[in-house]
C-alpha cells in the first residue's frame, strides 16, 4: 500500500468490501505512541517469544476492547488459559452463542465502542448467526472470533470442524482464518480497523488452536483508525443548499446515523431552519430525533398506503442517515409517492439510491454535514422565508408527536378501570415512571407497538429497538447495554415468545448483578402471528402459536436463575411495584399477565 498525503490525513490505500462491491478509500490517523509500541513487543516466554493467545488478547486491549463476551469450549481453552494474565479485559459469560453475540451487539450500540466476542467452532457459530445478522444490520463494531480445530487435523474433519469463514462471510464486513502466527498482529489490527471504519460493522476471525498455542517473536504493531468525519465539498454544499431552498414543502426523514454521529441537535436545527416536519424512519432502531420537538411527527409506519399518503403533500424528502422506506409485509402499493424527489446524506452509500433513485446523494458524516449546511441555508434564506418557517413550526403543533401523545393519554384515561392490564396503558405508565435517564431496550412486539407514542427520545442512547425483525435479541442486548452504560437504568421489555429465544441472558444479568429491570409481557403466545393469520387468511385456528399447556412460568424461571421476580396481574399491583423496582440496584423481572388476544 502506498501512503499518499491528503491535507492533514493520509490515504493508506484501498480495500474491497464484499458487502459494497467496490473500493473504499481509507483515510487514516495514527493513535499509538512509540512508547505504547515498545510495550507491545511482548516478552512473556523464556525466549522473547509471545504465544498466539497472548498476542491476540494484548492486541484486543490495545485496540480499545474492554469486554470480551464469550461461551467457551475446548478450542477456546488457550484463550481462557491466557485470560488470567490480561486482567484489563472483562470476560462476560453467555450461556448460548446467540446470547453472547446479542450481548456484545447491545454493548457496541450503547457505547459506539469496539467489542469482542468468542463463540465455539461450527455449531457455536451456527447458533450465533441470527445475532450476527442483527449486529451487521445495526452496524456494531464487533470482532467475532471462533476457536477452530488445530490445522494439524488436515482434511480429517474432526468433531465440531466446519468452514467457519464461509459460514460467517455473508453476514460480516470481513472474514478470515489466521493460518500463521506471524499474521496474528496484522489480522487483528486489520479486523479492528475494518470493524470501526464507518460504516462500522462486525468482522469474523477463525482462530485455529495451534496458532493460539504456538509462540514466536512478534511485533504487535500499532492501531489504525479511519477518520470519516467528512463533509461535502464547497461546491456540493452550495448545490445542496440551493436545491433544498428551491423546495417549497420539504420533509425530513430522521435515521439511524443521527444516533451514530451524535447529531440530534443538528437535525433539530435543520428542521427549524427549514420549518420542515420530521418523521422517524420506518424501523426505529434508536432515538433518531427529539420526540418533544415541535417538528417531530412520529415514526413513519410500515404500511405502504399510509406512508404514501403521509408523504404525498411534500415536494422534497431529505433523508438524514436514514433507511429509505424499509417495509415488512408486501403490498401492491409503493410507499413512495410518485415524483417525490429524494436527497440522501450519510456514510452508508449502500443505502443511497438502493430502493429509489436519489436526486442528490452525499457520502459524508451527518453531523459534520449539517453543521456546514445549516449556516448556508440561513444565508440563502430571506427574512420573509424565515418568518414563514416559524409559522410552519407553530402549525405542526396541531398534529405533531406531542399533540398525539396528549390525545392518546386522554383516550386511555377515558377508558376507565379495566379488569385486565391494557397494553397501551402499560406503555404510558412505563414511559411516565422510568427515571429521566433510563434506557429502554424494546422487543415488546404487539404489547409495545404504541410505546414510542408515549416514550420521548431525549438523548441518543435512551432507546434501542430491534433492527431486523429477528427476535431473541432484546433480553441479551439489554445486558450489553447495561454494561456499556453502568450509570443509567436499563429497562428491557420483551414479549413472552421473544423472551424464550434468549432466557439464558437472565442468568448473566443475575450473575453480574446488573440492575436491569426485565418486563416480560405474558400473553401466552405469539399474538402478532395470530393477528396476522386472522387478518391475512381469516383463520382463527392458531396452530403452533399458543404457549400454553403448560403455561410458561417466567417468574419461576427468573427465580431459578437467582433473580428477584414478581407476577403482575392487575394495574394496581403494577403501580405499587414498578417505581420501587426501577430505582432498585438489583436485577429484577416482572412477568406481566396480559390478554392473549384473538
Ligand atoms: C428469529 C426469529 N424467529 C421467528 C420469528 C417469527 N416471529 C415473529 S414474531 C413471533 C412471536 C413473538 O411473540 P411474542 O414475543 O410473545 O410477542 P407477541 O406477538 O405475543 O406480542 C415469531 C415467532 C422471528 N421474527 N424471528
Ligand atoms: Mg406473546
Helix-strand blueprint:
Blueprint: E1 4-6, E2 9-17, E3 22-30, H1 34-40, E4 50-51, H2 52-62, E5 67-70, H3 77-83, E6 90-93, H4 97-111, E7 115-120, H5 121-138, E8 142-148, H6 164-168, E9 175-177, H7 184-196, E10 203-208, H8 209-213, E11 215-216, E12 224-226, H9 234-246, E13 250-254, H10 257-260, H11 264-274, E14 278-280, E15 296-299, H12 304-311, E16 316-320, E17 342-346, E18 360-363, H13 366-380, H14 383-396, H15 401-415, H16 423-433, E19 439-443, H17 451-454, E20 463-465, H18 474-484, E21 490-495, H19 496-499, H20 504-511, E22 517-522, H21 527-537, H22 554-560, E23 564-568, H23 571-583, E24 588-593
Helix pairs in contact: 2-3, 2-7, 4-5, 4-18, 9-13, 11-13, 16-23
Bound molecules: thiamine diphosphate (TPP) and magnesium ion.
Tell me what you see in this structure.
With 598 residues, the chain is α/β, with parallel strands linked by helices. The protein folds into three domains: 51-216, Rossmann fold; 234-396, 3-Layer(aba) Sandwich (Rossmann fold); 415-593, 3-Layer(aba) Sandwich (Rossmann fold), CATH 3.40.50. 38% of the residues lie in helices and 19% in strands. The strands form five sheets. It has a six-stranded parallel beta sheet with strand order 6-5-7-8-10-9, with helices on both faces. The chain has a six-stranded parallel beta sheet with strand order 15-14-13-16-17-18, covered by helices on one side. A six-stranded parallel beta sheet has the order 20-19-21-22-24-23, sandwiched between helices. α17 links the parallel β19 and β20. α11 runs parallel beside α13. The termini are far apart. 48% of the residues are buried. It binds thiamine diphosphate (TPP) and magnesium ion (MG). The site of thiamine diphosphate has 18 residues, from α19 and α21.
